What does this fold into?
Amino acid sequence: MSLLNFFGKGRRSAPVARDRLQLLLAHERGLGGGEDLAAILQQEILAVIAKHIAIDRDRVVVKLDRGDQVSTLEIDIEMPETALPKS
Amino acid sequence: MSKVVVVTSGKGGVGKTTSSASLGAALAQAGQKVVVVDFDVGLRNLDLVMGAERRVVFDLVNVVQGDAKLAQALIRDKRVETLSLLPASQTRDKDALTEEGVGRVIDDLREQFDWVICDSPAGIEKGATLAMRFADLAVVVTNPEVSSVRDSDRIIGLLDSKTQRAESGDRMEKQLLLTRYDPARAARGEMMSVEDVLEILAIPLLGIVSESPDVLSASNVGCPVTLHNPGSPAAQAYSEAARRLMGDNVAVSVPKERQSFMSRLFGRKAVA
It folds into this structure.
């Protein structure tokens, strides 16, 4: 077994390559071969929020995680104290 | 009816220029009138691979800009009479080409040749989009390697949206030329197989060229492999691909692994 592992190390990486590509390309094709979806969403969401409050672009964190079944887009915006509406 | 073929890939170094020269030569050896056009303005290499680097006087940019007549810029191959080369410029930048100008040159070439093979530069910038713009058929050169396959997928998307054919609602024909394939490594599962790449890219297969020292030797001496070493597996793969382009019904033979003594001894067991 250990001998087999020794010789087999690094082998059979082709199926991994195929699976990674299939997952990635399924996403990229959905974008119409164009822009990065995460970048577009980030810009548009920020633009909407910026209409109402002043936000510091450096304090915005965008994370995208592409999964097999579900992908998540996480946008974290820090709102400055002064930006909150006064009541 | 002449055909305009773009040889493209997105990624650099996968074998576009070698394949353009070899397919062009193979078509010419079969009696077709062929011109191979280098679109890699600023980084021309087709002249070198075809052994005409010392005969370049005018280039594609000169012709597009009207500084030279097409006949002055075309270089006729010394080995195959029906093969010509239209080199790219080495000095100017990519903006030197305009869509109208390139379209005019392609129309002129269509009148003189059966095949106009456009050797695309790498990338997805202007040079690459102009090389594919007027094509009737695309040969997508791909290595069985993740970055090459991804870029080919991207190029297929561009072929289906940015070409004149696609824009006028026609189907853009695309065929896969798998190069630098290593059957032994594919058999061991170290390299994506022909089936893997075909399944992912989902376009018909034009041919498979195995990784081979014959290809390097041929470019070393500036002679397409189909002329330099016609009996080599690479030359045969290109010649068969050329026949398929001409409409001959030749089955694609998948290169088999040539078993070495060591792999016969250990190979099978290690995989099982």
